[in-house]
Automatic annotation (TrEMBL):
Keyword annotations: ATP-binding, Kinase, Magnesium, Metal-binding, Multifunctional enzyme, Nucleotide-binding, Thiamine biosynthesis, Transferase
NCBIfam families from the UniProt entry: PRK03512.1, thiE
PROSITE patterns per the UniProt record, alphabetical: PIPLC_X_DOMAIN
Record organism: Neiella marina
Protein name, UniProt field: Bifunctional hydroxymethylpyrimidine kinase/phosphomethylpyrimidine kinase
Cited InterPro entries: Aldolase_TIM, HMP/HMP-P_kinase_dom, PM/HMP-P_kinase-1, Ribokinase-like, ThiamineP_synth_sf, ThiamineP_synth_TenI, TMP_synthase
Amino acid sequence: MSWLPHTVIQPYQVLTPKRAIVWAIGGSDSSGGAGIQADIQAINGLRDEDALGNQTVAQACTIVTTVTAQNSESVSDLMALPIDLLEQQWLQLLADMPPAVIKISLLANPQQVEWLAEQLANWPAGLPMPLVIYDPVAIASTGDALTAEPILDAVKQQLLRHVDVLTPNATEVLAITGIALLSSHDLQRAFDVFRQHGVKTVLFKGGHTGLLMDVPISDDHVIDAWTNGDCWRYCASPQLTTKHGHGTGCSFASSLASGLAQGYALEDAFAIAHAYVQQGLKAAVGQGKGPGPVAHLGWPKRWQDFPKTANALAELDAERQACAPCELRLGLYPVVPTVEWLERLLKCGVKTIQLRAKDLPEDQAEPLVKQAVLLGQQYQARVFINDYWQLALKHNAYGVHLGQEDVSDADVEKIAGSGVRLGLSTHGYFEMLRAAALQPSYLAIGHIFATTTKDMPSTPQGVLKLSQQASLLASRDTAGVEKMPTVAIGGIDFERAQQLVTTDVGSIAVVRAFTQTSDPELAAEHWLHLVGAGDRLGDSSDAESAPLAKQ
């Protein structure tokens, strides 16, 4: 039995319960740079805490399969541990610290493969089935073999059917499938072979030469690719020139496991793990004569360490025109269903507002858009139009807001060229990074809390994840990129809004705070006192109107 046996694992899913324990099953590296030693550092090291004391952290537990004698130059010997010792490690942990994620790496012989496959097949019915990640290690980065006996047949016939996320590099793909990853078409061919063996998703690690030769950006970028067979996700970062990188694969798979165990959606954990390794490679140094290990620096927080993300390879090469900028701090941002509500709140001093009149035919929507634009001009306010971007451009609106499901159908280049501002919704690290590449005017981060205003495929992010993403966007200037205005949205009432003042977010969007209160004018007064009206039009240095903690 494997996790979610009758469903497709989707990239936006949170795949684990709130039990952030990761079992790392693999070999001991006496040099300390890879194997179980790297697993522990990556799993435990990927941790963060916000100003309110909210923490995200995982704990590594280990089942050692193999003891190796190695240094930075070579592996001189190894010993596979007996099955009864593996069994005792397994049972002790199972009785006290069951995992959210099992991360598998080095298995030294077919007997170990068969034993592990049997344990996964007979997982106790009373415990939630953990997510299983397999990093198919057989060769050390020094070039030495790490298995006592060939294990490939046992892996294909018995283990792969239990794997939820496989993380092979190009060498490992070739060994298992016989397919060399020379083009993007080879990725699909290789996945088809893996799927025949029962693997649910594959994350192809692109840190090897010769990968994706038909993709121009791959000439000087490392591209990681994930698929479940129905959709693809890509992360790309500039190639780094360093001889140090011992334990790169271990650190990547283990930081991925840690992120998943901490409740991050699969695509978000993918982007975070990519950044974790990138920052570690930049800081890697050697202590011996050979390549040094990846540095373990904790939660990645610098914009320059995060990848460009995409749902299609063509997006990675695209050059985008920046949309017209808006002020950095947008302040209170009501989202209202009618022009009447729009005018009522503008009269209260609201300076940023969105008209969300959903599912109207164009002939009914156009007069509403036209009225909204005129009201924005009358009150010198930032009025955004939800969805109807063609009408917004036609009537020269201040801005338009698009959701993730709408942006693919919109002409973003036309919006950018028009001078109309563009706001985009995002629901996690991966979408945030992808949306930022489109160079919009602002990004909305959501949904922060549970909401009843719309059905959401993603789960609420909470204050910590909002803080992480807003801070990351605020760090863009350290990478030579302009800061991106941010908006928090989703399930935010007045009490919850007070938790957000410690974050770097520059605006709070509210949907029901006014339309479901008996005194909207009084509510507007309270909200404006807490959040502020944002910067004045054309001025991002207006400290008096700055929202949130910057008041």
